[in-house]
Amino acid sequence: MSLTQSLNEVVQSTKDLIETVKTTYSQHDVEIQKILAVAPELQRVFYVDAVNGSDENDGSENAPFRRLKKAADLVPRHGRGHIYLLSDYHMTEPVFAHDCHLNIFGNKDVFRKVTFEQYSHGTDGNDYRAFQGFRWVGSGYFNFCYLDMVLPVLDPQYNGLPTSNYASIVSCATSSHTGNQGVTFRYGDIRIPTAEEGTPAGHILGHYSPISVYLSNVTASGASLKERFSRNDRARSYTMNFNFDELP
Questions:
Q1: Is 166 in contact with 203 (CB distance < 8 Å)?
Q2: How far apart are the C-alpha atoms of 64 and 71, rounded to whole Å?
Q3: Is 39 helix (H, G, I), strand (E, B) or coil?
Q4: Under a CB-based contact definition with an 8 Å cutoff, are residues 100 and 76 in contact?
Q5: Distances (CA, A) of 8 to 3, 4, 77
Q6: For 123-175, what is each residue's pLDDT tens digit?
Q7: pLDDT 10s digits, 26-77
Q8: Buried b / exposed e along 87-111 (16+ C-beta atoms within 10 A)
């Protein structure tokens, strides 16, 4: 093979490589454009006002929803929802994170109080006590910020019933092996009933499998947070970036 032929082959190979690269970049650009087109739908922002809101609204700041569940259910799978509470909120139904990340925000100047309604539920012929709280399914994650979360005092009508995982502010709504799960409490207060007030209705956290937990700038009033933090205290049932002994 002559030098000219070899050079021609190198030139042609270079041209072929350039075309391949251009085609690859073009394909990547098409895929990126698809992602960019979808991305806005994966990031949803909603406002909830339990006093003046309406579920017929669009969930904007000037037209907030009334129910947290309404906003949470509109966050797509694998998406991230930012939900802002414009008033205190009483949980009368569970709020689910279905394979998504839910950020629930109060107000940094006036924390929003969140309270929880109690109920009993039956399974395997037995009744268990529970209260309406936040629950994840699959790879769910909750981030709570600027909230005062109040663990309820046990209602006398449910006294004597065993505590289920659903008697927790945050609980896993499915079995174990449901993916990455976690919860963050930031800039707020967790209120635990004192002995004088009555028996706490449940726990802060109810879960089946390993999860990530993070507390930052959170205070705890009432009884010991440590005693009411986790429904399951099995070894390695949770992973946290703080020592249990550091809890208030």
A1: no
A2: 9
A3: helix
A4: yes
A5: 9, 6, 53
A6: 778 899 999 999 988 888 899 999 999 999 999 999 989 888 899 999 876 65
A7: 564 565 456 546 666 778 999 999 999 999 999 999 999 999 999 999 999 8
A8: bbbebeebbbbbbbbbbbbbeeeeb
Which of the pair, 37 or 182, is modelled with greater confidence?
182
Residues pairing with 131 in the sheet: 118
Q: Is 181 helix (H, G, I), strand (E, B) or coil?
A: coil
CB distance 202 to 151 below 8 Å? yes
User: DSSP letter at 167?
Assistant: S
Whole-prediction pTM value?
A: 0.79
- DSSP bridge pairs for 126: 123
Q: Is 145 helix (H, G, I), strand (E, B) or coil?
A: strand
Residues 180, 141 contacting (CB under 8 angstroms)? yes
Residue 174, burial from CB neighbour count under 10 angstroms (0-12, 13-18, 19+): middle
Q: Locate all alpha helices (DSSP H) within the chain, ordered by sequence.
A: 3-42, 68-72
Q: If you average pLDDT over every residue of the chain, what do you get?
A: 82
Strand 118-123 with 134-137, pairing? unpaired
